Amino acid sequence: MTSQINNQLTYEEMAALMKSCAGLKVDPAMLADRPDALLADFGLDSLGLLAIVSELEQRYGTPITADADTCKTPQDLIAITNSAVTSGA
User: Fold this and answer.
1) Within-domain flag for 5
2) In the chain, how many domains are there?
3) For residue range 18-57, what is the model confidence (pLDDT) as tens digits?
4) Could you tell me if 75 and 35 are in contact, meaning their C-beta atoms sit under 8 angstroms apart?
5) Fewer beta carbons within 10 angstroms: which end of the chain, N or C?
6) CATH number for the domain including 67?
7) Cα separation of 52 and 47, whole Å?
8) What does pTM read for this prediction?
C-alpha cells in the first residue's frame, strides 16, 4: 500500500491510513511539518484513531498498547506504534 522502511510507521503511511480508515485527505508533508499538532487539527476524531490503531495492529500483527487510542499528535502515534513494532509489544 505505502512504503514502510524497516517496518516503521511513517508520516506517508499515517496519511494513507487517515484516508482509508477515517476518510481524511491529509498531506504527509503537513504531518511531518507539524508533528506536535493535535490530530483533531487534521480532522481525526477518536473513532478514526481507533480505526487506525486497529488497522496497525492487524498490519503489524502486534498489539499497539492500550494507550494508543489516547494519542494526541502524529508524533505520539508514530512513536507508540514504532515502539510496539520494534519491541513486539
Assistant:
1) no
2) 1
3) 999 999 999 999 999 999 999 999 999 999 999 999 999 9
4) yes
5) N
6) 1.10.1200
7) 9
8) 0.86
